[in-house]
Amino acid sequence: MENYKLKQRLGKGAQGSVYLVENKLDGKEYVLKKVECNDEFEANKAFKEAMALQDLQHPYICGYKEFFVTWDKQESAMCVCIVMEYYKLGDLEKVLRQKRSKQENIEEMVLKKWLGQIVEALAFVHRHKVIHRDLKPSNIFVTEGLNITIGDFGVATIMDDARTRTRTTVGTMNWMAPEVLERPYDERSDVWSLGCILLELATTGFLDSAQASSTLFQIKQSPHVLEDVLEKVGKHYTNGKELCQIIQIMLRRNFQQRPTALELCDLPYIKESMKLSGKTTINNQGDTSKAKPVPKDKGISGVLGYMKDNKTSPTSIVEALSYLASFTAKGDISLNESAKKQICQTMKDNLCVLEIQIQSCQIVINVLPTVGDKDVLYSSTMILPVLLAMRSHGGSAELQRIGCQLLMALSADESAADLIGRSGGVQDVLAALRLFPNDAELATSGCGAVWSLAVNESNCKIVTEERGLQDICTAMMSHEACVDLIESACSALWSLSMEDDNIEMMQDNNTVNLLVEAVKTHIKVAKVVKNACMALASIVEADESCAFQVLNSGGDYGGAPIIVQAAKIHKDNEEVMENICALFCELSEYDEICTELNSLNVKTILADAKKKFSRNDDLMTSVLNTLTRLGGGQHAGKRVSSARSRPRTPLKK
User: 258-308, pLDDT tens digit by residue?
Assistant: First the structure.
């Protein structure tokens, strides 16, 4: 301490005090941070760990002048002192205060430049096996050139976990990832903190300090809070969709579904951000020269060989993949394992090239019907590149559509569905639905993917937590005339009805009425009637009030006459009648509804079904139970309904 003159105390935090000091030897001003330690042993240990921080030499990391151990008389404690550079313009916390006071947005170019610089700095330190763990606006400093540098690596890094946990302040908790106080966690916890900082930077125009703090606290428990805020963010910035998607993937509560800082460097929006600094340390490769002709006369192996020879030329790869996509679209064309792996690797190596991602996904969709169980396409080799592509190109409706379509197909495999859910694929599908609510084709693919994924119980819970039910209902209301969408949406609602927490949300979103309206609007379309009645039977079984909602839905005539009319139209279709009879069976549990069903002469419909489909055990169970109730006889007990049973694999279209 004898080499430094204390000029003023800048602040006192949970782990120590911060001072502005002047070096007596060179006259320069520095920041000195004292980190309190329990004893001399802890101080020496912390000092050795702090010395390792001197290796963190990077343009966007606050430089450390020196470290030393001293005795603080006032605190009666051993302290490790960290001397670092002083930045006259202050930190991002100061920037946030200034912008919020004027309700001004931070310019998108500035926001992107700072984002790119922070990502580069984090990628660098994570490669050095250092986790910050206390990243927040007050320890990100602004240089006179309006660049940023990250500081305060010393505190969270050199203190042991128990001490960090017990001395963490409530304020710091705002930016701290949910898993940090629980374990396990890794470098992706810093990515959460960066997501919080980016959200703050993007909301200065409409959130004050208290509102921003409240939002950061709430998003750990309620994902829909983040959705509401991002809807406003998207309107304030030119590339709002891409910015919002970057924030979304950073703020995934399950850290295993979050990208690492190195993975963020591969995302196009982040790459654009890093280029704005003019001195990125991340290498970008790619030959933009004109593509050579694709050897179409040498078969698939010849085209794949051409791709290997021209792997640094994105234009050549696009040409090759476009040819393979059209060739495999002819049907019944398979690829060997080596070819599939090459396409997956090509996606990873060319993440920034949108057309490569689209054509690769299309090829996989084309060849999926030819693959068997345990194929490499059902593994992380394929699934992770698809998810990364969707996150990288959030602004491309075409890629989001084909990505959802591919995830739906892949999730037919039980292990693949589980992997997609654990890797954040459910959130990716829901993000696509929210980004493009007016795109009927994308909404159809998205609803189909939710349907297929939510058959898996774990995935169904994720959809429930993320309030995906509302997205399905919104799609149905926006595109009620689209048959394929309504079919997929009805099936998705059936899958979601297996989760009891969704039933209350179904009441709030008027889901029963949407299903009845779907039958009414598409009453002649067998697949819609079948899926809608399947979902209704499951919902009615779960909640008594939903049974009466069926009667009160569908306009002036009510829901029961609509279902009866559908039964008359599809009386010869066994699959449709099985689900209609299951719905009648659930409705007949209630005396008031039995009166309504009798007035509509439902017994005649059931008798006809009994005669035609006597070999269908499930249908016959529903018919006999319903006839007993409608006839007024004693029923031996409520049937064990199959409507809400969860199959091990998705239903096939």
Answer: 889 988 888 888 989 999 876 665 555 455 556 678 998 889 999 999 999
Alpha-carbon gap, residue 627 to 624, rounded angstroms: 5
Contact present, 266 and 282 (Cβ < 8 Å): no
Catalytic pick from 134, 375, 413, 439? 134
- Structure tokens belonging to residue 418: 């589980």
The three-class DSSP label of residue 157 is: helix
Any catalytic annotation for residue 134?
A: yes
Which tokens is 471 given?
């997205």
Instruction: List all residues 6 or more positions away from 352 whose beta carbon is below 8 Å from its beta carbon.
Output: 266, 268, 271, 286, 392
Cβ 138 vs Cβ 151: under 8 Å? no
Q: Quote the CA–CA distance of 643 and 530 in Å, as a whole number.
A: 12
- Count Cα neighbours of 290 within 13 Å in the Cβ-side half-sphere: 2
CA dist., res. 541 & res. 585, Å (int): 9
CA dihedral angle for residue 210, residue 215, residue 218, residue 222, rounded to 10 degrees: 160
Distance (Å, rounded) from C-alpha 537 to C-alpha 642? 10
Burial 463-496 (b: 16+ CB within 10 A, else e): bbbbbbbbbbbbbbeebeebebbbbbbbbbbbbb
**How many whole angstroms separate alpha carbon 634 and alpha carbon 482?**
44
CB within 8 Å of 215: residues ≥ 6 apart? 199, 203, 207, 225, 226, 229
CA atoms of 567 and 570, how far apart (whole Å): 5
Phi, psi of 20 (to 5 degrees): -90, 125
Token couple for 132: 């910050």
pTM of the model: 0.78
Neighbours of 296 (CB within 10 A): 12
Tens digits of per-residue pLDDT, 13-61? 666 788 899 999 889 999 888 877 877 777 777 677 667 667 778 899 9
Helix axes 314-328, 337-349, angle to 10 degrees: 140
* Runs of H (alpha helix) within 543-646: 544-552, 559-569, 574-587, 591-599, 602-612, 617-630
Count of alpha carbons within 13 angstroms of residue 425, beta-carbon side: 33
> Which candidate, 261, 251, 265, 259, places its Cα nearest to that of 175?
251
Q: Could you tell me the strand order of the sheet in which 29-37 lies?
A: 4-12, 16-23, 29-37, 77-85, 64-72
Q: Is the dihedral of CA 566, 571, 574, 580 positive or negative?
A: positive
- Here the tokens at position 103 are 């309700």
Which tokens hold the place of 257? 């579904």
Q: What are the structure tokens assigned to 55, written together?
A: 């290796």
Can you tell me which residue has the tokens 């591919």? 406
> How far apart (Å, rounded) are the C-alpha atoms in residues 614 and 437?
44
Tokens of 80: 């490790």
